[in-house]
Amino acid sequence: MELGLAYKELLSPTHRRALADAADILIDTTLDDLAATNDPTWSNDRWLIGTMLPPRYQLHYDALFAKQFFLCLTTVIWKLGQPEPMRPSCVAEELAAHVLIEEARELLEQGGLEAEFGEFEDRFFEDLDFVYLYDDAYDGIEQTDIAEQMGITYLAFADWFKRFGPPDGSGYTEVHPYAVAVGEPEGDSSA
pTM surpassing 0.85? Predict the structure, then answer.
């Protein structure tokens, strides 16, 4: 599997290989973690990716969320395998890409290589607003006037799986339909 095809000018072969290796690790461990969700003793702290997501929302990372987030991870991996650039379509996909990049960074550093994803991240992400979710100093920023002025949206947990942009004419791909159902009452198709 080769990832980062559309970003060859920004990602060295070593970095593209690290992304592919990180994808293998995250897919394999998540499949194992998801298989364990049928166990009544399963908890979100036993889910590798759950430990890599914003800690302040850890109580929300239940088995259903883990399954839906996994789809975002696989969607991001698929997007990175395409010959044309495709950006994340929602905060959950941005977080999945961030987790993937962090795992690739760790692999490179373990191999004694300097990890440099800055230019790639600048091109792949429209913005890095999702990083605010990792800093408790910004808890609730999405509800402030400054966030509205700065265009910071979709950071509320209930909005993580909502597609960016207006319903019609957006340049973003649709979010996987199984993932979109997070937090919606059954039968609600208004998202």
Answer: yes
